[in-house]
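quick one, 371 residues, struct below
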Amino acid sequence: MASVVAGAKRIVVKVGSSLVTNEGRGLDPEALTRWAGQIAELRRMGREAVLVSSGAIAAGMQRLGWKRRPHALHELQAAAAVGQMGLIQMYESCFRQHDLLTSQVLLTHEDLADRKRYLNARSTLRTLLGLGVIPIINENDTVAADEIRFGDNDTLAALVTNLIEADALVILTDQEGLFDGDPRRGAARLVAEGRAGDPALEAMAGGTGSAIALGGMLTKVLAAKRAARSGAHTVIASGRENDVLPRLARGEPIGPQLVAERATLAARKQWLADQLQVRGTLTLDAGAVKALTVQGKSLLPIGVSEVTGEFDRGEAVSCLDESRREIARGLVNYSSAETRRILRAPSSEIEARLGYVDEPELIHRDNLVLV
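---
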């Protein structure tokens, strides 16, 4: 049984707090050096990688001299603000040893629930990957509210996996993986493979996290279920394994792998279709209809003849042919007011008409569903 990461071109890697903070004693330079080296090896293998790293709160606790994780939200946010500085500084130094540029990206769940902010985050991350930069993502704990209490960077990693259409999500933990029972209470077998979203796996995954990292195996199993909505497979592996990331990429099975049932593209289209609520319509000429339905291309403003309704960037619109028959739905890159100003214009004229350009497409093909 080969690892599902073997065929993945774009990988999201989530590293837990205990793996970067020496079990909560503060940032561990040797550990961060190892993660940077392994991701650099992924890059040499031709893979794209995004790192979702916990550790800001634990690092802040160490810097502030706190021995126990506080319960007050404002204290947690203060620890995150202090710790994030050291975390990203150390990562930047470690990746520089491999001549790799890094970027800091702080997100909240709301950033990925709001369509406008979703598109902005997606465009930024795609641009960074295209430039060969390693995005290092953490939850924006300084402004997050309820999420900070659950420590669910596992969920954030799954949302990022959906966002960038990654092929695989690797969740690295200080545990060996998912067992079919509690290994502390007797014989229990490590789960080798399962179906992401299987309720039986959720039942196996009870339990809680450590004093440093809240959230146990259940959040990881649920993250795999979420990642599978856009077709990504998930591996839950021990971060204590030597060179775990390159070994997974070479096909070595390490830890449980939770497999998505749908192919990535089909799953993403379904995921988009399930959440679209149309805010307006775009009428397309025959050339644009052919480009979408036959050639599988993005929708450009030059092919749009009419706009109805009022919508913002990131909201869903319906695409109609000249007989007013709906052919597609998608997330639009420009508001209704902006779209009216760039109708029938080639993409090269968007900046001249608006004074800026967000995207060359009105709707990117990855954000469009044929109906």
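Residues 147-151, 207-215 have pLDDT under 50 and may be disordered.
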